[in-house]
């Protein structure tokens, strides 16, 4: 039980050292993430459609 308590104290101490992003940074990071996800999704949809069309031809 003592080890568990030490672990929890250690976690609490480390979480105090974390630099959390502010609202402006969070919006910027979230927007960048969504844009990259959309770009990759469009790439894979286009690749799938192209490969599907090639397979249909043969």
Q: Which properties best describe this structure?
A:
58 residues; mainly alpha; 2 helices; elongated
Provide a compact summary of the structure.
By secondary structure, this protein is mainly alpha-helical.
Question: Which overall shape is indicated by the principal axes computed on the Cα atoms?
Answer: elongated
Unreliable sequence segments: none
State the helicity in percent bands. Answer: over 70%
Count of helix runs: 2
What fraction of the residues are assigned to beta strands by DSSP? under 5%
Q: How would you explain this protein's 3D organization?
A:
- With 58 residues, the chain is an all-alpha fold.
- It has a domain at 23-58.
- The chain starts with a helix and ends with a helix.
- It is built from 2 helices and no strands.
- The mean pLDDT is 96.
